Amino acid sequence: MNAxxxxxDPLDLAIIDRVYEAIxxxxxxxxxxxxNERLKDGLRKRVMTCAGASQFDFDAxxxxxxxxxxxxx
Length: 73
Fold this sequence. Notes:
Layout: H1 10-31, H2 37-51, H3 58-66
């Protein structure tokens, strides 16, 4: 996620990282195992795409990422 430092301020990056980690933990708990790298890469891209859609806080970004919303794309 370092490539986005010029676009997001440090607080935004911290929120993005926490959303990614929260969703990843949820996925791993549901699967009862580690998530493969392909799924992690897809999750990273979705979080970054949704973060770029508009202003956000943790809850709003989390809801955008896990929701079935088209405003992230």
